[in-house]
Amino acid sequence: MHRRRSVVTVSSAAAVLLAAPLLTGCGGDTYPGSAAVVDGDAISLTQLQDRVVATRDAQREAQNGEQLISQTGRLPRTTLDGMIRHRIVERALADADASVSRREVQEQRDAYEQQTGGPKAFEDALLEQQGVAPSAAEDWVWLNVAVQKVADAWGVDPKTPKGNKTLNTRFAELSGEMDIVVNPRYGTWDTERSTLAPADMPWLKDVGAQQEIQQQG
């Protein structure tokens, strides 16, 4: 039976997370074992590796596991991109004097599950289309709720072309104000596009739309 999938953009990308060199921050500071440091808050290599391993394990258990793995070769980089974005949104949320409750996250997850055909269908869609393991689904939902709250605080409608462009610009400006240092193994933070990944990734993702999955290079 064909099951409607949510639409999330998957980025093609690097399969194995290797040991990385020490990360040197601004002012000569060093951050041993870090994949990135955002305003002094380190994202450790272990945290990143745990996310990547969880996704890879889930992909291997999927019926089309080999295909999923081949489609997400740069998974460490896109995963780190998401972890950095999480911290940028946290900063924006705090600046807007707003917060996201557990109830709001659960309500939004319930809505996504209804749109995609149930809890498993939702988790399958995140894994297949976004490279997000079931264990990270709550963080993914939180991010979408938080981005919408920030957009509301900024008076922006991210579901319109103009609003989406404004949202991207505002987040890019905010990330430029933050001290974001990335381990060279994973690239550098692009403040103009507000992304680490090799292609533009939307801040707010519509899991109810019917679109083709876009493969980012």
What does this structure look like?
- This protein is mostly helical and 217 residues long.
- The chain has helices at residues 45-61, 65-71, 75-95, 102-116, 119-130, 137-154, 161-177, and strands at 10-11, 23-24, 30-31, 34-38, 41-44, 180-182, 215-216.
- The strands form 3 sheets. It has a 3-stranded antiparallel sheet. It has a two-stranded parallel ribbon with strand order 1-7. A two-stranded antiparallel ribbon has the order 2-3.
- Strand 4 and strand 5 (41-44) form a beta hairpin.
- The radius of gyration is 17 Å and the shape is globular.
- The two termini are 31 Å apart.
- Residues 1-30 and 209-217 have low confidence and may be disordered.
Index terms:
217 residues; mainly alpha; three-stranded antiparallel beta sheet; two-stranded parallel ribbon; 7 strands; 9% strand; globular; disordered N terminus; disordered C terminus
Stretches where pLDDT is under 50 for at least 5 consecutive residues are 1-30, 209-217
Helix percentage: 40-55%
Mean pLDDT: 80
Number of helices: 7
The secondary-structure class comes to mainly alpha
Spell the H/E element sequence. EEEEEHHHHHHHEE
Q: Judging from the principal axes of the Cα atoms, what is the shape?
A: globular
- Strand arrangement in the largest pleated sheet: 5-4-6
List the helices and strands and how they pair.
Layout: E1 10-11, E2 23-24, E3 30-31, E4 34-38, E5 41-44, H1 45-61, H2 65-71, H3 75-95, H4 102-116, H5 119-130, H6 137-154, H7 161-177, E6 180-182, E7 215-216
Parallel strand pairs: 1-7
Antiparallel strand pairs: 2-3, 4-5, 4-6
